[in-house]
From TrEMBL:
Native source organism of the sequence: Kineosporia babensis
DNA-binding region, residue range(s): 25-44
Domain HTH tetR-type: 2-62
Official protein name in the record: TetR family transcriptional regulator
Keyword annotations of the record: DNA-binding, Transcription, Transcription regulation
A Pfam family that the UniProt record links to this protein: TetR_N
InterPro entries reported for this sequence: DNA-bd_HTH_TetR-type_CS, Homeodomain-like_sf, HTH-type_TetR-like_transc_reg, HTH_TetR, Tet_transcr_reg_TetR-rel_C_sf, TetR_C_31
Gene Ontology molecular function, alphabetical: DNA-binding transcription factor activity; transcription cis-regulatory region binding
Superkingdom per UniProt: Bacteria
Gene3D superfamilies tied to this protein: Tetracycline Repressor, domain 2
Length: 188
């Protein structure tokens, strides 16, 4: 059954991106993959466990895309961070449905106590990844930070998440990117 879990997560992810979180019942996900509904319950136990798995999988995809990018040598901290901002924002504009899904699952988790721990794990992993990028760029550029990488990451992630929602609403990709670049400039 372990080999089925990634297939079920992928099917649920595709369904949620297409029709929304509320549409991803265990029955709908089973139909999407062409399996019995019992397969979902056996693999995950509940719809909430499947939703947790989707949130964590999508988060990992986004982080992997950003972390896989090898930045060019940067002369200064702001230039080094701009590379990652561009990569992260490109992930938003090239696959907005992924980020829409993360936003929707995050809001759902705020109302569902059983999902709250997965939202906290999502936030923790994103903050840690961004803090790691900030620390690495600072070290590579010889930049002494006035705040911890964790504090800078928390502010960056909060701004990013808000700008993603704005982008999903107004489709102004340039404005979102510019705001993130402005934030990076103030961090430097």
């Amino acid at each position: 059954m372990n080999e089925r879990r990634p297939q079920l997560v992928r099917a649920a992810t595709e369904l949620m991106m297409r029709e929304g979180v509320a549409a991803a019942t265990t029955r709908a996900v089973a139909t999407e993959l062409g399996v019995g509904q019992a397969t979902i319950h056996y693999a995950f136990g509940s719809k909430h466990e499947l939703h947790k798995a989707v949130l964590l999988a999508v988060t990992q995809e986004i982080l992997s895309d950003v972390q896989a990018a090898a930045p060019p040598a940067a002369a200064d901290f702001a230039t080094g961070l701009r590379f990652f901002v561009d990569r992260l924002w490109e992930s938003v504009t090239s696959a907005p449905e992924r980020h829409h899904l993360v936003a929707e699952l995050s809001l759902t988790a705020l109302r569902e106590p059983v999902l709250r721990a997965s939202l906290q794990e999502h936030q923790r992993s994103v903050n840690e990844a961004i803090a790691g990028i900030i620390a690495a760029v600072a070290q590579d550029c010889g930049q002494e930070l006035t705040r911890t990488p964790q504090a800078l990451a928390r502010a960056f992630v909060a701004a990013h998440d808000g700008l993603v929602v704005q982008y999903l609403t107004d489709q102004d990709a340039q404005a979102g990117r510019d705001c993130l670049l402005d934030l990076v400039t103030t961090m430097a």
